[in-house]
């Protein structure tokens, strides 16, 4: 009896010890892992950036090269495990190649994956100039020299919103200064790829020599308090007089000539008031520039 008594105690101790080794039970609902939904991705110069927006789940990412052929899709390769609220950039990509990405949530506690979400992503290098040089020549010409690029096919040039023409790669192309009423020339060079997709524009500004130009007032500021209107603008060298017009029913009526960069006006009603201003230089009047004063 003594031997059986000791055996019974040993068995009880073993059972208690074994019970203590068991992990906490996993709720059945925890095995139902949702599809990945909070995924953002972007194509940039480094590759394909993938953001895992989930609060709780690690994102398991795989990829297959769709451009190789349909049967290659069976050979998905692991790309990364992305922690919640983290970003990973897949740099193993080739320009103009189509990839099939497979995303699944991974729950490490139970080592279980969610159903897969598939995304087809075409990688392409950003359409931008590898280099570009823009100059403003003494003969009032703007010259654009785009560098060689495997991505850029041609470049469209505009100056102050006026389309000037096309600049070829590795060719210096010059354009005559357009007739604009501004002391600044804003040059925009927009690259296009071989499929005529618009790329990242390049912009550069040049200050013009206003002493040799007869420009209307620049950088006009309009202030209106109820019916009281004040106009102010930049002072330019040798600009001593300015003409102020009011536009009513499409017609310009001369109001006043001033010799300071300020004009006050009392509106008759609450409607917008449309003005036009000119500069008088060497007894010659510049083109008109329009401004509106609204409440």
What does this structure look like?
The chain is 7% helix and 47% strand. The protein is mostly beta strands and 295 residues long. Strands 3, 4, 6, 7 and 8 form a five-stranded antiparallel beta sheet that branches. Strands 18, 19, 21, 22 and 23 form a five-stranded antiparallel beta sheet that branches. The chain has a four-stranded antiparallel beta sheet with strand order 12-11-14-15, with no helix packed on it. The longest helix has 20 residues, at 2-21.
Please render the helix and strand layout as text:
Blueprint: H1 2-21, E1 39-43, E2 48-52, E3 58-65, E4 77-82, E5 86-90, E6 97-107, E7 112-113, E8 117-123, E9 132-136, E10 141-146, E11 154-159, E12 162-167, E13 173-176, E14 184-192, E15 202-207, E16 221-225, E17 228-232, E18 241-248, E19 251-258, E20 262-266, E21 273-281, E22 284-285, E23 289-293
Antiparallel strand pairs: 1-2, 2-5, 3-4, 3-6, 6-7, 6-8, 9-10, 10-13, 11-12, 11-14, 14-15, 16-17, 17-20, 18-19, 18-21, 21-22, 21-23
Which descriptors would you attach to this protein?
295 residues, mainly beta, five-stranded antiparallel β-sheet, 1 helix, 23 strands
Overall geometric form:
elongated
Rg for CA atoms: 35 Å
Give the SSE string.
HEEEEEEEEEEEEEEEEEEEEEEE
Main sheet overview: 5 strands, antiparallel
What's the count of strands? 23
Q: Into which percent range does the helicity of residues fall?
A: under 10%
Query: What is the end-to-end distance?
Result: 106 Å
pLDDT < 50 stretches: 16-24
Would you tell me the structural class of the helices and strands?
Answer: mainly beta
Q: What oligomeric state do these chains adopt? A: single chain
Question: How confident overall, as mean pLDDT?
Answer: 85
